[in-house]
Design goal:
Layout (H helix, E strand, L loop, with lengths): L1 E6 L6 E6 L2 E7 L1 H4 L9 H8 L6 E4 L3 H10 L11 H8 L8 E3 L2 H10 L6 E7 L6 E9 L2 E9 L4 H11 L8 H7 L5 H14 L30 H27 L3 E5 L6 H6 L6 E3 L9 H14 L9 E6 L5 H9 L4 E4 L1 E4 L8 E5 L5 H10 L8 E5 L3 H4 E2 L18 E4 L14 E3 L1 E3 L5 H14 L3 E6 L11 H11 L3 E2 L5
Parallel strand pairs: 1-4, 4-5, 6-9, 9-10, 12-21, 15-19
Antiparallel strand pairs: 1-2, 2-3, 6-7, 7-8, 11-13, 12-14, 14-20, 15-20, 16-17, 17-18
């Protein structure tokens, strides 16, 4: 059975192909159109998906009719005219016309994407995002692939919308720049943030720790929450918002534990990209899985994996996030080492592109993490704010030597964090300033031989030469642009920004 999963029409469209239980292709539409967070599919990504054969079923990540009904309840009649993903596909992609189709619930596809990329036979599942059809937060219990919903929070209450509203309020782009807001939080004043947090709690939320809100946050903050500006900086507000989100995510996780009794957690939805909050979840659960693409794009995989399971009773095979466009050739270990020895900042574009918003070694901008000038140089290249640090990729066997990784009570610190989903205190911040934030933490990616043997070889050889087991890793793109996908993208990036991008080693 071959299944094509589709997520589109809102933001960050994506497709996934499952063929006889294997995830053979998954990619973001933006990587082909070169439009950041492109909400629509395009001819090139459909062509890439169909290269794996005509699907037996096309499945979609949410029910459009329910979204229309929700919008009608708030007086948004313009939404009626928008085409559903299914109608859009039928109109613009005749090659898919006539293929049987099915549509699943939005939060169900989020949950499935997490469950079927985990190793858990039994687990709690927590989904928190801006909004699905009506759900903005759900709790599920999964046993042997079967999902049972245990709790739901409905629109207009939404923790995701709260964070996006604050993002917009400080002048950033909602549904895109939330990670910048998370980074800004480290620079806020604690006492002012505490005052703001109390104001937010009183004015916005209906209770002490829950997700239910008093107002519809989709309308934003500017008109209704002018009080936030009185003597406070954007950094103070970012810290207050981050603290409030962390508190309420943790409370909802405790509810997930109470409702399911499971010590395993799958966390999905766009809010699961908040790696600071994620680290606190080990206070509640022993084992946590957050797939590398927990937002809406990942729901294309969730829809395909769920349908395959429902049709066959079998789980899909998850081998990792490297599922997109393939750049052939030998991984450029030797060229990368040569660039590192020269003190260069350089790109790696080789193998299959990562499915998710974060580069994990195949479409990465890389540098030596030692020295104080690297952060400034990379931020100039990336056209980012100067205060923002970068993430480290580190040999798994050395991670607890360099970082204080999160841990569940009574358990040792985790050592496996391959998807950059948690933060950890760096024990030697003065040695690695480029990867350490203002609060002393880093967003860590661990690497082992099974996960990525070529990247493991690069890090191992670098460690053997220098005694340094980590490298700076950030996405190979410029702010506001999609990550490099093809050889042409790599060549264009290199020519325009004057940065070497290694696509292969010489044989």
């Amino acid at each position: 059975m071959r299944v094509l999963g589709i997520s589109s029409q809102f933001h960050d469209a994506a497709v996934t192909v499952v063929d006889d239980g294997k995830i053979v292709f998954a990619a973001h539409s933006e990587r082909y159109s070169r439009v950041k967070n492109d909400p629509f599919l395009n001819k090139d990504i459909i062509k890439a998906a169909l290269a794996y054969g005509k699907p037996d079923k096309v499945v979609y990540h949410e029910k459009h009719w329910a979204k229309v009904l929700r919008n009608l309840t708030i007086g948004n009649f313009g939404f009626i005219k928008e085409l559903s993903a299914k109608k859009w596909v039928k109109k613009f992609y005749p090659e898919l016309k006539g293929i049987p189709s099915k549509t699943y619930w939005h939060h169900e596809t989020h949950a499935a994407a997490g469950v079927f990329t985990s190793d858990f036979d039994e687990c709690a599942v927590m989904v928190i995002d801006a909004i699905g059809e009506f759900d903005s937060a759900t709790i599920w219990h999964c046993h042997n692939g079967k999902l049972t919903k245990k709790d739901s929070v409905w629109y207009p209450s939404s923790l995701g919308l709260f964070y996006s509203a604050i993002t917009a309020y400080v002048g950033l782009k909602p549904m895109e720049d939330e990670y910048i807001l998370m980074g800004m939080a480290a620079y806020g004043d604690d006492s002012k943030a505490e005052q703001l947090q109390q104001l937010i709690k009183d004015k916005v939320f209906a209770d002490e720790t829950g997700i239910k809100t008093k107002v519809n946050l989709q309308k934003g903050f500017k008109e209704n929450f002018f009080f936030l500006r009185n003597g406070y900086t954007d950094f103070d507000l970012a810290k207050a918002a981050q603290w409030e989100v962390e508190k309420r995510i943790s409370a909802y996780a405790e509810k997930a534990y109470e409702l399911t009794g499971s010590t395993n957690l799958v966390f999905m939805g766009g809010v699961a990209l908040n790696c600071v909050a994620n680290s606190n979840l080990f206070d509640v659960f022993d084992n946590i899985h957050i797939m590398p693409n927990p937002g809406d794009a990942g729901s294309s995989l969730g829809a395909a994996a769920l349908h395959y399971y429902n049709a066959t009773g079998r789980r899909v095979e998850w081998v990792g996030p490297y599922l997109g466009t393939k750049i052939p050739g030998k991984y450029p270990v030797n060229k990368a080492l040569d660039s590192l020895r020269k003190g260069h900042i350089f790109g790696i574009a080789n193998g299959r592109a990562e499915f998710g918003p974060r580069s994990l070694g195949n479409r990465s901008l890389v540098a030596d993490p030692r020295g104080h000038e690297i952060q400034d140089r990379m931020n100039i290249i990336k056209k980012r704010q100067k205060f923002r640090p970068f993430a480290p990729m580190i040999l798994e066997q050395h991670v607890n030597t360099i970082f204080e990784m999160p841990k569940a009570p009574g358990n040792p610190p985790i050592s496996n964090a391959p998807y950059m989903q948690y933060v950890a205190k760096c024990k030697w911040p003065d040695m690695f300033p480029a990867i350490v934030h203002e609060d002393g933490t880093s967003r860590v990616q661990t690497v082992n031989a099974q996960q990525h043997p070529e990247l493991f070889e690069l890090l191992t050889r670098w460690y053997n030469e220098t005694g340094c087991p980590l490298l700076v890793n950030t996405s190979l793109n410029i702010k506001g642009q999609p990550i490099v996908d093809s050889v042409k993208d790599a060549e264009d990036f290199s020519e325009y920004y004057g940065v070497d991008v290694h696509t292969h080693d010489d044989e």
